[in-house]
């Protein structure tokens, strides 16, 4: 079995700030073990959730609840591009194309930077 | 999340599919031994991995599994006569041995040798641990039968049950690896005075994974009041088995989910005590219907609480003592698993949290192995049948204890670090 000691806790992904997305990309480049790649997948799952919920909240104008934290981004058409980039990066990680996946995440981070 | 393509790959298990071929590299449960109770008993028709099969027990007692359709004109051999070491089709009397050899064609000319050229599709069978297991893959790839612990014990040390589950196998498998749901879906209090939400130190967990020669160990730890960690370690055993976390020294329970087709699955559940015969309480845990063994209609294997009766939900019980108002752990699981977008969850639209890390790991392993197999690379795990003897762990331990060492300390003597290994 793989030794569990000295493993860093996986990062929590709770916003779409450029630094958050770039952090996932940076860690992805240096991820090689099964567990490391599972953690990176989980982080991209969280990024996907943030952007996908924001998109769906905007699309369903009849939703009466308050917008999610990413709600400030609701009007941005770039959200769709960002979601596609994150989804594709997640898929590439599944196929062990981590360098290419990190590149897509950096493109997503550039979109996030354009909002600030 | 998964792409639609990966969701298709991981959920479709018929002949020729990527995941179907992966399943066909492993021994999987087909029937309870008790379904074939005696020599020349009634044949049993059943589905597995998208194929229609028939099981029977020969005059000499050997369990056998054939493709259900007669090679002649595809009538079901289920209607056949089980007699004198073979199953005779009810349509024209063609008779087949346990190995699929055509023994008789009573309507063909007396001097015909046509039967010597005819074969029924017959699969390799192994009977152990109260289960008739089948291997449905290439003949030259048959692996050694894995050393599941209960299959090595006396009959009074284990009990096995079976149920029909009305969804894709993966929804059940994901539930078995999702240890976080236990504190909510399965929470039932003795008194209505107790809080229905679990204490925060129990509900909030951290999740880790370790690779093993049988698959993965999904590890979850939570804080305890005395400043230790409570560890729950679930072995995910390829291709679709899990061992429910149990305290050291107590009975273990393995759940095996095997696709019937893409929308239905068989759930086999085995409970065993490695040290002694099952005691009264352990037997009641199997037969009482309150745990993971469920009461079923013996003719169909459909649980008595099912989607047609809303799993017999009791809303008053839900208001007072039970998180769900549904009786029994397995029934609670079935209620949520049998409708996640219907029978096949749309995983390209889901939103996973940190509690889903075991699920992410399991999917990653299955998809990688299926894709590798499509490229001609066989699963290495099949070379380690002894590793499949693993046990689960549920224990409080000092924070300094290494979890891998903790897992190894709970294993049978014959399972050491080397045999668990890192196969992946």
Q: Could you explain the architecture of this structure?
A:
The complex is a heterodimer of chains A (116) and B (424). Chain A is 63% helix and 0% strand. Chain A is an all-alpha fold and 116 residues long. Chain A is elongated, with a radius of gyration of 15 Å. In chain A, 37% of the residues are buried. Chain B has 424 residues and is α+β, with helices and mostly antiparallel strands. In chain B, the strands form 3 sheets. In chain B, strands 11, 12, 13, 14, 15, 16, 17 and 18 form an 8-stranded antiparallel beta sheet that branches. Chain B is globular and about 85 Å long. Classes of the chains: A mainly alpha (116), B alpha+beta (424). The A-B interface holds A 1-5, 7, 9-10, 12, 34-35, 37-39, 41-42, 45-46, 48-49, 52-53, 87, 90-91, 94-95 and B 1, 3, 6, 206, 208-212, 217, 219, 348-349, 351-354, 356-357, 360-361, 364-365, 367-368, 371, 402-404, 407-408, 417, 420-422, 424.
List the helices and strands of chain B in order. Answer: HHEEEEEEEEEEEHHEEEEEEHHHHEHH
Topology pattern of chain A, helix = H, strand = E: HHHH
The helical percent of chain A reads 55-70%
Mean pLDDT of chain B: 94
Note the beta-strand portion of chain B. 15-25%
Largest sheet of chain B: 8 strands, antiparallel
Structural classification of chain B? alpha+beta
For the secondary structure, the number of strands of chain B is 18
Major sheet summary line of chain A: none
Beta content of chain A: under 5%
Nearest-angstrom radius of gyration of chain B?
A: 23 Å
